[in-house]
# Entry
Amino acid sequence: MMLTDLFGRVHDYLRISITDKCNLRCSYCMPYDLPHGYYANIKRMTADEIYSIAKTFVGFGIKKIRITGGEPLMRKEFRKIIQLLAQLPVELALSSNGVLIDDFMEDLQQAKIKSVNISLDSLQAETFSSITKRNEQERVLSNIHLLLKNNFEVKINTVVMRGINEQEIVNFVSLTKDLALHIRFIEYMPFLGNGWHKNQVFTYDEILSTIGSVFSYTKLNDPVHSTSKNFKVNGYAGTFGIITTMSRPFCGDCNRLRLTADGKMKNCLFDKEEIDLLSSLRNNDDITELVLKSVRNKKAAMGGQFDNGYQQTEANQVINRSMVGIGG
Ligand code: SAM
Ligand code: SF4
# Structure
């Protein structure tokens, strides 16, 4: 049976968060003031439980699993988890902040992970540190080169925030001249505690016109279910894309489901209901009905939380976790 929702969308892509902890503190993702005991009180999926739930999803036709977090490489059982997931007949991918990549190169290769997304919001050391609250830029940059050297497909995720890093868009695109990277500019999204304001969203139109004022580019054909609209500067080795969640949501074509580190299923990044698969699994109950229920509950767009458009939305109206607790 396929995971088809009421709008006819078939879901074959699962993003699993394996931890809600992180070694960086990106302002847009990790709130400054998590409630006291936030980490202590959460029950997290064990490696075997992750495997067991993932297997159920594969039985429903999931073909691709992305491992994310928090920072997945912070999870003590990271090696065990990817070894287990590598046994499933799925394409495995990873999202990471890049800091610890050099410790895990062989493990990634053994698990046949070919595609890695790395977060990088600034090419300037000071801005990087001010966004992430840590001085890890050098290691992240060197790990991006290491991944390329080892023939991984590397996508760089850059959250564009007005007044913070929009002046770096051109420099990011320049990186694609010689490096076969795919840079994805992400419109800034609201999550619990991140202080989002609609005026800080640097939109698709603005990003593209910034790039167009310097480079001549060509539109590429977007793969099915692509979250980004993709382009290439003529003659450059790499490509760039824009993830337009706020200004032009791409929900009509969505094939994605999510599992949080504490075993809650989210049918959308902005799903406010969440279904607790882990508790049922621990009670030895069959979770298949719950998975189907979550898919049936999926709203047409953006968890039903932005029906009037992002410009009519205040951050405190959005019911959700912080991004670090969802899994990007
Ligand atoms: N730690 C890993 C990383 O940084 O890539 C994986 C988890 S992180 C939550 C996944 C992605 O979500 C990152 O690319 C990050 O930039 C993006 N993200 C987090 N908060 C966001 C926000 N408020 N708006 C847009 N993208 C966000
Ligand atoms: Fe950590 Fe990634 Fe969130 Fe940054 S975006 S705080 S690296 S989980």
Q: What stands out?
A: Residues 210 and 222 are 21 Å apart (CA to CA).
